[in-house]
Amino acid sequence: MKDFKHAIIECVPNFSEGRNMGIIKQITDEVEKVEGVRLLDVDPGKATNRTVVTFVGNPYAVIDAAFLAIKKAGELIDMRTHTGEHPRMGATDVCPLIPISGISVEETVEFARMLGKRVAEELHIPVYHYEHAASADHRRNLADIRSGEYEGFAAKILKPEWKPDHGHPVFNEKSGATVIGVREFLIAYNVNLNTTSTRRANAVAFDIREKGRQKKDANGKIVKDASGEPVWEPGLLKSVKAIGWFIEEYGVAQISVNLTNMHVTPLHVLFDTACERAAARGMRVTGSEIVGLVPLEAMLEAGKYFLRKQNRSIGVGEAELIRIAVKSMGLDELAPFDPKKKIIEYQLEDNSAKKLVDMSLTRFAHETSGETPAPGGGSIAAYCGVLGAALGTMVANLSSHKKGWDDRWEEFSNYAEKGQELIKEMLFLVDEDTNAYNKIMAAYGLPKATDAEKAARKAAIDTATVYAIQIPFRTMELAFESFNLAKEMALKGNPNCASDAGVGALCARAAVKGTYLNVITNAKSLKDNAEVVAIVEQSEKMNAACDHLEKEIWDIALQKMK
């Protein structure tokens, strides 16, 4: 499997205990003790005698936390005495994993199977997989697996078609069985209408939801099929569940929506379709609200969608895309929309960490000028690369809405979007270069009293040094790539901005040259390492080529300015 260092998945296990807060706390304590995981929500229900827990983090950390929670639930919850309103089959009844960013559904399925195998082998709890992780079509639906519930599972597990995906077909009387799967992120979303009528809100909900409404004949009677069941007319949008209701607190009716797959029906498509159907019924959508959290991707795609509708460049910063999405969908109508609190990836950010890129320019300068070797040339070179890409992106955005160039907005938007990708990765590398230096220092600080310790210390130093070569080399690759953006903008962009494209090329050259120095400095001690040798060879080529590229762009800019 690939490196999932920066991937994020969500886990929402449902435990068959909603009344004893001491037991619930012991389970969630297991989650919170795992580094790289953040507990977001604990929602107990007395009548259902069930608690829904939500946590997110790195995939490896999440499945560790899930395993520990399932283990603790198996120790503390006795299904032989459990009662509750909600269907259930085990102490940990269901444990879905949801890909958030940096990981696909298929890759998340592999983590679900890793977790299922571990639960079955180490805890002796039979495990089934559902939805995207299902091993057969008849196991895809959670309700089908859970049919018969805990009381019927002793007999059900013996049937060949219900043999567990992991573990022996032996019923665990105390813990029951567990279902582990992969599903899409569910966005809870309400659309506000300028009406107080629940009936009219329901009409719009029935228009847009996948299930639709019951079909009626010309006399208003429900049409039934041959078996006497009502015939349903499907609604407009897949993966959408919706109903209308009146919210006394706000004095308006809303369409309450569960969006079960934002990749099938994006959030912005849902909003626009609700607007169209409300207008067709004489109403107006006044805004909307996210209930709980929303993935960053949904907000960024919405921002791009509404900019495209205006024939505006989508190659703007993340914060601007989110602002456009919030204003376009009226997400701040009923309450302020704080991205740091509402977007799931932002919830995971370590705000206690001191990042160079979050500092003011003045503070960054003073931080660099201090008596410590980091931040140093590598971080500064990376930031030069950021500035070079930012200038090229600026020219692209200015060109995209230049008067008389309306038919070229998308051409320049594509350049700007690529520029934003370069900016984002190089901003990460500004701090990561300093982190790479700190890894080397940590390795040098390891004990070296014995031969074994000396060998381990040298191996750690070598590993950290390779990383300290890889980071500036990646910066060099990105900065070198940004020459193309600078050149295209110097040639094709707004002529009034030719000087900006030229300065962008100067910054790119500084970044390439600066990171080249870092690479060859750190590579001196690893001349026998094949990966390092290959990096040095490629660095030599980029270093030799960047002078010509910078001069070419410089000459184009000068010519445009005359």
Structure, described:
- This protein is α+β, with helices and mostly antiparallel strands and 562 residues long.
- It folds into 3 domains: 8-182, Formiminotransferase-cyclodeaminase, Chain B, domain 1 (2-Layer Sandwich); 187-347, Alpha-Beta Plaits, CATH 3.30.70.670; 356-561, Formiminotetrahydrofolate cyclodeaminase monomer, up-and-down helical bundle (Four Helix Bundle (Hemerythrin (Met), subunit A), Up-down Bundle).
- It is 51% helix and 14% strand.
- It has 17 helices and 13 strands.
- The strands form 3 sheets. Strands 1, 2, 3, 4, 5, 6 and 7 form a 7-stranded mixed beta sheet that branches.
- Helix 15 (451-492) packs antiparallel against helix 16, helix 15 (451-492) packs parallel to helix 17 and helix 16 (498-523) runs antiparallel to helix 17.
- The two termini are 55 Å apart.
- The model has no long low-confidence stretch (mean pLDDT 93).
> Which segments are poorly predicted (pLDDT under 50) over 5 or more consecutive residues?
none
Using the alpha-carbon principal axes, give the shape. Answer: globular
Task: State which percent range the strand residues make up.
Answer: 5-15%
The portion of residues assigned to helices is 40-55%
Summarize this, please?
This protein is an alpha+beta fold. It has helices spanning 21-32, 59-76, 105-123, 142-146, 149-156, 198-208, 267-280, 296-309, 318-329, 339-342, 344-347, 361-368, 377-400, 409-444, 451-492, 498-523, 530-561; strands spanning 8-11, 14-15, 37-45, 50-57, 92-101, 127-131, 178-182, 187-193, 213-214, 232-233, 240-247, 252-259, 285-291. It has 3 domains: 8-182, Formiminotransferase, N-terminal subdomain (Formiminotransferase-cyclodeaminase, Chain B, domain 1, 2-Layer Sandwich); 187-347, 2-Layer Sandwich (Alpha-Beta Plaits), CATH 3.30.70.670; 356-561, Four Helix Bundle (Hemerythrin (Met), subunit A) (Up-down Bundle), CATH 1.20.120.
